[in-house]
Amino acid sequence: MSSFLSYLISGISLGSVYAIIALGYTMVYGIAKMLNFAHGDIIMVGAYMAYVTFTGLGLPPIAAIAVATVGCTVLGVLIEAIAYKPLRGASSLNVLITAIGVSYFLQNSALLVFGADSKTFTSLVNIPSVSIMDGEVIISGVTIASIVTCIIVMVVLTLFINKTKAGQAMLAVSEDTGAATLMGISVNRTIAITFAIGSALAGIAGVLLCSAYPTLSSQTGAMPGIKAFTAAVFGGIGSIPGAMIGGMVMGVVENLSKAYISSQLSDAIVFALLIIILLVKPTGLMGKKIQEKV
Amino acid sequence: MNMKSKKIRSNIITFGLVIVFYAVMEAMLVTGSMSSLMKGLLVPLCYYMILAASLNLVVGISGELSLGHAGFMCIGAFSSAVFARMVGDSIPGGAELFISVLIGAAFAAIFGFLIGIPVLRLRGDYLAIVTLAFGEIIKNVINAVYLGVDSNGIHVSLKDVKSLGLLDDGEVIIKGAQGIGNLPRNATFTIGIVLLLITLFIITNLVNSRQGRAIMSSRDNRIAAESVGLNVSEYKLTAFVISAALAGVAGVLYSHNLANLQATSKNFGYNQSILILVFVVLGGIGNIRGSLIAALVLTILPEKLRFFNDYRMLIYAIVLIVMMIMTSAPKVVAWRKMVAEKYFKKSRDNEAGGKTDAKEV
Q1: How far is A131 from chain B (nearest CA, A)?
Q2: Do the Cβ atoms of A105 and B321 come within 8 Å?
Q3: Within a domain: residue B67?
Q4: Mean of the pLDDT values across residues A175-204?
Q5: pTM for this one?
């Protein structure tokens, strides 16, 4: 029982990270209607930024997190402006291939700058671990940090979208781009803001991910990126609560199947679950019910 | 010129180009003016071209975005490799390869059928993610499979070699993540080109047939196609299964070009599927000849860029982005049209228009 509980908790922690990444996918998809395949690699760049600031320059963890977040925000906006903006209005497949080009670009830049051998990421989270059930289950600091960060991100994001003008503009653009333009909303600016927020979240996710799983290489972001994307689709792409639920379910299922079924087949099980859900509900768990699209 | 002879001429050009390509490569081989690097690329070029042409059948002709093409290649590769190991030296290499191609194509087609039935109910990006998921599942499961043969027959396990329970005369063929070793390596450039020509023959025949027109009309307007009585799902499934079978053939070529076959994320992961999709999109969606040329150029390009050493993949990425922007950014297209009109008057109009007409998937 206690081992099940600890697997469950670490699953929720992994799921929180997936959820934060999935938010970036979901928001960008909801607004720009594009699959941003480079999103996973922004996580990797964020983790490298934190690594350089913390391990390389010896600055405090909070500075490393700030550098990763701000750095990723700038990177996300730059990528959007240089690679995606010229293609607005082109077929979605062309944009997809461009995103793949950006993904290759980021991976190979990281490979050039940091070399092929993976780095050991020192955890930036120095919260003490908590033991519950008479010390049978120990929850690490990173786990707590991931879950808390995820909840904060969800709350702040929901407030931002519902209470601010920029957030409302995002809703409007995702609902109907043409009508939003007629209402005087700058679509370009709204998309840029979306990329900024999504990339900032990717930076945070990179720090959390590498604090929990400390190997850092140019491929670090690829698989979590795909899984988070799966989580976003699973929950209903375009829906914020969907991304959260999708991420959690993915993380928990992955961890439990690693623990109880087979570590090699855990990815297959996660993907099979996605397929089953999509066959039953072709737009994902929250795809239709929730009108609130971002 | 009427439509039919135009199509025939276009097909002749495609086949002609492949044959010319073969002749040039063979001439270079005979005269010894080919680098060993390039020699190693000859068979890969063939399977990449087969993959690109077959994926174009799904993405371009049938209009569905599939990101799991490498999964079918994986099935073709492993099923044929298992066959090759099982028969060993008991039949001549040529016959083995011939049967392998049939087996690889059949297995990939069966999986294409099984996956296609549920998957083709989904649309657009959802279909893309599910095909991606299927590709990953195939790769993952194959990495966990142990398969052995003894006098009692075939044994399969998902755990380890021991749990196969082989007799003393048994032999382990698939060793989980270690894959299959001791393969015959009997694929040659000529065989690759023959398979490519057969692939092209199948695809061009399908596209120009009644069935092909039905597939394309389902792509262009599903509702209209349904309302004239076409079974859209069936036609889409046909295209999907044929495409999967051809990817299986490419997999056979792949596995028969190696001594050790393993399923890694590099050769059968979603990255590979995406690479094939890049060929299709860059070559022109729905344009089979374009896919072949894109596959050729983009396979040779990274090798030619070796001059730049570490920077080559970076340059490859930049080339990809710049090419995409140059060919499909609305502003660039408009600018190109303007320049074309200014200097060439009317003559370039059609061409520029044709390129931007990429179908929304």
Answers
A1: 34
A2: yes
A3: yes
A4: 92
A5: 0.85
